[in-house]
Amino acid sequence: MFSGKEYVYEVYKEKSFSKAANNLYISQPSLSSTIKRIETRIGMPIFDRSITPVGLTECGLKYIQAAESIMAIEQDFRNYLDDARNLQTGTLTIGGSNLFTSYVIPPLISSLHQKYPGINVTIIEDNTSNLESQLLLGSLDFIVDNSTLCETKFDTFLYREEHLMIAVPKKYPINQNLQEYQVSLEQIRSDACQDPKVPVVPLMEFKDYPFIMLKPNNDTMQRGTHLCKANGFKPDILFELDQQSTAYHIACSGMGICFVSDTLLCKSPALTDMIYYKLDEEKSKRNICFFSKKNRYITFAMSEFLKLIS
Prior knowledge:
Blueprint: H1 5-14, H2 17-24, H3 28-42, E1 47-48, E2 55-56, H4 58-85, E3 90-96, H5 98-103, H6 105-115, E4 119-125, H7 128-137, E5 142-145, E6 154-169, E7 182-183, H8 185-189, E8 210-214, H9 219-230, E9 236-241, H10 244-252, E10 258-261, H11 262-267, E11 274-278, H12 281-284, E12 285-293, H13 300-309
Parallel strand pairs: 3-4, 3-5, 8-9
Antiparallel strand pairs: 1-2, 5-12, 6-10, 6-11, 6-12, 7-11
Helix pairs in contact: 1-2, 2-3, 6-13
Domain HTH lysR-type: 6-57
Pfam families: HTH_1 (PF00126), LysR_substrate (PF03466)
Keywords: DNA-binding, Transcription, Transcription regulation
């Protein structure tokens, strides 16, 4: 019923068929024919052609009021699309474990918010298995993890490389025999400890001490047990926990040794009760990546977020 309303509205604004036709870049007969078809379609005249300048009939007034309402709604929607395309609005939902939601995601979304304050960001904290399921269901845009996820199901976007270190309570006597292998937090935070000249600690030296580990499905646990096995012993595990940060803080209380990423050590407050050692680079090196569901539509918000991590 309101198809062609822009022609009617132009005549209404100009109060002249000739001026309206000129504005619309069409001939006056063509415009008159179009208006006549619209009036025939609704069954009543819109314009009173018996007066000069041309005016509206009662039906025409109602038509214009309705047309203005429709055009206002259309303009609102165009504004929304413009905002969304210009990233003035939008949504982004990111999932990760406690480590990543605490230390990796915040500075990234802070940068995104400074540039695009209209984007609404939601952070979901959970374990990798649950997050992976949510990503496949479409309830998450991204998850961040240091595991390797199925390439046929997920697209992978590299964020940065990280390394596992081993953290040992300072009170353990074995530290006195291993001073040549010790690295400082400053070396870890500057990545200087990954220089090939920095020696790798012989893990066998820790075989008689308790370990604070993560649960079996965790990549840190799998790498840690593999490193111990490669060095000829099975670790005496005191606790198996869900979160790396929890394991690290329990180790800092003096209860055991733990494997900890340089991501955590670079971001968390410096603690003086621990001694750190470098591990075999090839076995301790892994990537932190963001993952999205394969072949899903990449929204404007997702696209801009990916620019921040590249």
